[in-house]
């Protein structure tokens, strides 16, 4: 500190003094201190042991600070853990999960549970080093790089919107696949919803175009387009689309997507016209993976009897309007959640079998399914009390 001694200010660098010690007075007219004190009043430095303790304490504080930083700093991973299950034949927050108007319905017993997964990290908020490490040690959880679930730069708002759109599409597909399985007619059209860069359809197909026919064949589903392109093996295809109320004919040469499939390079969405209304009410659950269980729930709701025979069945899988069951994420956590919820039978997409083998919870029979017909048959067989041992299961190679 700066003090005034005599006539001239100077910076006092004197060491700390013991209690009761006073500094010497300055000589008259001089800006310097008197002779250094001697004897018991002489200043003393800290003993070596005290310095060691101070250094150790400082090191400990630094180590603690670094440790706190290490466990709280975010890392680029996401953690999946088992979520709750919801009975598609039951209620959610006081309302039926599936309600139908315009068609006769039948009370259904038992459970057809859809399964969920909690996802921490990525756009949902950071995961710390400690959080990722403890999840890695927990057999009920899975840790993945963020890029496996979310494209780089995805915001929470974008992720939420994409998941909500996927859930809406999943519900519509579930209604379509259920009606098709029950041979109930409905209207179905394909509409262009976007063209990626480098699309062979650029300049020929516009957003909002409705696909009418390909090579003279009426387009009643995406399968018609895929089958015709596969048969052509890259040959130009004649596509007729409806645009502003008029039919427009275009010749498009499909491209190989690198996986042996020929595509038009158009993102498509379905436009449905159903003969009756199906409403699915389920708050705070998003994504496409409930499609299979929604479809089974609709089938059980609009047909007499109990599909499950009162048994507790759970499952997961995306669904197409044609009834194909597709793979999903987090199946290990979903199986654990299903068993914790009381399920004894679980329906798994065939394409997820590599993740199922070796991770089936005790007391849960896992059956693999590729389409809604197989899933329905499996549930009916289990519900009637018949032996399900001959049904397809996931097995190691």
From TrEMBL:
Give TM segment ranges.
Answer: 53-79
Q: Which family does it belong to?
A: Belongs to the peptidase S16 family.
The record lists the organism as Pseudarthrobacter sulfonivorans
Task: Identify which residues the record assigns to the active site.
Answer: 289, 334
Lineage of the species this protein comes from: Bacteria, Bacillati, Actinomycetota, Actinomycetes, Micrococcales
Q: What is this protein called?
A: endopeptidase La
User: What PROSITE patterns does the database record attribute to this sequence?
Assistant: LON_PROTEOLYTIC
Domain named Lon proteolytic is located at: 287-382
Q: What class of enzyme is it?
A: hydrolase
Looking at the record, which segments are called Disordered? 1-52
